[in-house]
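In the design runs reported in the main text, the only information available to the sequence generator was the tokenized backbone. The following block is the verbatim input for one such run; it is reproduced so that readers can re-run the procedure and compare outputs position by position.
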């Protein structure tokens, strides 16, 4: 981790939301970066500490809960020859957690950095072309100050690197440690790109920090999409660019119907607080699965500029009148992100409602669902339902 990351992202403690963070170096890298260490809250009443592992800060609210589910991915060895790795994986079934997580990691890597399948090459390029076009027309560097971007649900970081090319710097956040580590490896040579493990429902940054925010195919992969959208709006500067893409591919396995943002509602929310600059009703997003399979999602893609006075309030404090809109019941967390009145449990991020036990994937029992909605990073995947996406990542 580059120590200057704390300054240009205006990072705050993920627990108290009031204190700044200071770095304590454990192992330094060759270039002065922090390879392993601790980030500690400077607030006198908090003092929470979060680790830096392999140069990746892990800024989650509940560290114990996150580590209990993600420890196995953090500690997984990557220095073994492929043949030995295959021997160790031999006892694992195709639906085992480790196999599924690695399969999804390979899929996102191929999507961001690999050549597209020849048969899907035309469709594959449209998504990135839309983003490049929006950044080229509506964003860029500003003389006299540093411009910063946020990629929420960054997966393996390809679009974070794109942001960094158009701005002075960009940070990608995701709750899957192995993807953030892969992003740092793939984009290590990209100037200005940095990555950390963090929660898009309550990202650990001060309000109005970012000039551009990407929310790419992440809203329908979270348990509380309204809270994610509200938090990202709060992080964006007035006049900043928000790029939202989503296929509205919700599942009740990961979020309750009342928490889904419908397409008319999303456009109503954006019209209220943003000037819509570009809108594509059906943009293809191609996700490679393996050499003979790609999943194609037709996403709504919107680039919009934040108006003065927008953000900082819940997106569902008042119902929005949109013709043809069925308004879902409001989520009870109708306070600005970071408000001390939020119940701690209610602010926790759900990555999915599937559990991975020692014997691999299994559906949750009904009694587990309320509990697992509160869990961070429990490794739930959508692959058991025939699509290559999973909760907690976009893109």
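Verbatim output:
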């Amino acid at each position: 981790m580059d120590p200057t990351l704390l300054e240009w992202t205006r990072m705050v403690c993920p627990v108290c939301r009031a204190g700044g963070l200071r770095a304590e170096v454990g192992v330094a890298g060759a270039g002065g970066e922090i390879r392993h260490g601790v980030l500690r809250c400077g607030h006198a009443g908090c003092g929470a500490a979060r680790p830096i592992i392999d140069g990746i800060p892990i800024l989650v609210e509940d560290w114990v809960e996150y580590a209990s589910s993600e420890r196995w991915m953090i500690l997984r060895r990557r220095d073994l020859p492929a043949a030995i790795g295959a021997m160790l994986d031999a006892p694992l079934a195709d639906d085992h957690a480790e196999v599924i997580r690695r399969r999804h990691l390979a899929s996102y890597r191929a999507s961001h950095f690999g050549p597209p399948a020849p048969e899907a090459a035309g469709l594959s390029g449209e998504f990135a072309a839309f983003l490049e076009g929006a950044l080229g027309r509506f964003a860029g560097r500003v003389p006299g100050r540093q411009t910063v971007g946020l990629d929420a649900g960054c997966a393996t970081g390809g679009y974070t690197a794109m942001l960094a090319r158009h701005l002075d710097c960009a940070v990608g956040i995701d709750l899957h440690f192995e993807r953030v580590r892969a992003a740092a490896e793939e984009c290590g040579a990209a100037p200005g790109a940095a990555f950390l493990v963090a929660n898009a429902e309550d990202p650990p940054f001060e309000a109005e920090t970012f000039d551009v925010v990407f929310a790419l195919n992440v809203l329908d992969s979270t348990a509380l999409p309204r809270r994610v959208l509200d938090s990202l709006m709060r992080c964006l500067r007035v006049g900043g660019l928000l790029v939202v893409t989503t296929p509205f591919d919700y599942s009740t396995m990961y979020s309750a119907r009342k928490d889904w943002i419908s397409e008319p509602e999303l456009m109503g929310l954006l019209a209220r607080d943003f000037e819509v600059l570009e809108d594509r009703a059906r943009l293809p997003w191609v996700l490679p699965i393996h050499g003979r399979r790609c999943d194609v999602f037709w996403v709504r893609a919107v680039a919009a500029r934040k108006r003065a006075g927008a953000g900082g309030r819940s997106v569902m404090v008042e119902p929005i009148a949109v013709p043809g809109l069925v308004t879902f019941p409001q989520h009870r967390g109708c306070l600005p992100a970071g408000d001390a009145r939020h119940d701690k449990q209610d602010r926790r991020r759900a990555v999915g409602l599937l559990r991975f036990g020692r014997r691999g994937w299994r559906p949750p029992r009904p009694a587990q669902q309320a509990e697992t909605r509160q869990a961070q990073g429990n490794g739930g995947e959508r692959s058991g339902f025939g699509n290559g996406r999973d909760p907690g990542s976009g893109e």
